[in-house]
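ugh ok fine here u go
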Amino acid sequence: METHHKLDALADILNTIRLSANTYFCSEFAPPWGMEIDKGNDGIFHVVVDGSCWLNINNTKDPIHLCTGDIVAFPTGGAHSISDTLESKMLPGSQVVENILSGHNPFHNQLSNHPASSSTPQQNTLMCGSFHYDSSFNHPFLKDLPCFIHIKAKETPELSWLRSLISVLANEARLPAPGSTVMVDRLTEVLFIQLMRTHMEASPDRLNYMTALADPQIGSALNHIHAETESHWTVERLGEAVSLSRTSFTDKFSRLVGIPPKTYLVNWRMQKAKTQLETTNTPMIDIAENSGYSSEAAFSKAFKQFFDTTPGRTRRKVKN
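structure:
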């Protein structure tokens, strides 16, 4: 049952921050090859489907050797490079993606003029893509995203199901069929969620939002908050629902989530109100009441203090 709670809250967050995921390509690279990826706003991931290669993270001294089945991700878009050897010439990552998507893999068939031999360098199969989310949302989940995640195939045999997912994802990306675009995007979103889970499990003592979701009491409280359709919950009611006194609940919630429960409630209702204004035609008074305000005037004043713009302007901006 607790897993259901955690997934409900996380699903609501991912929907509200507008998580979208995209696999750019799954391609064979013949050596020498290398990509240099600049820091960006989107998260980036790489899966070594076959072969091995090297990862260099900017501002770190030691390169990381990646093997078949390894998954690496930069959820906050950190700068890095990935190549078959440490000496290989690098091409800009954006250029590589653009060329592959136009049907011109810059690292394809570079060995065609060389006879195969035991000394011939092995080709690699690499799958790369991105995660995008609306970073304008002021939410602890986004603030707590790790800079780097590395899932080592040799150290995670229990994730055999994830290897199966990667295999399906790789096949759909390489050999598109009707519906492949939707399938690839959805499977890539599943990959993002699993990366977050793995990071949480690898850092059980670290206090962050994923830890809060995993906590039986605070995770349940977060689920209650994210499931409400009207302004029902108060700090007292939430504490009672998870069998904690107001003081104990506030202390534990603040320690795990990073902000007090009352602040979280107000912030999340405002974020949801903004999303409703941008994506629905729900009357303003209904949005105001569902956010805990008895009038459009009170809601508009609070909304302007929170987002530095009015609800009306937010709705008109989308329509225009």
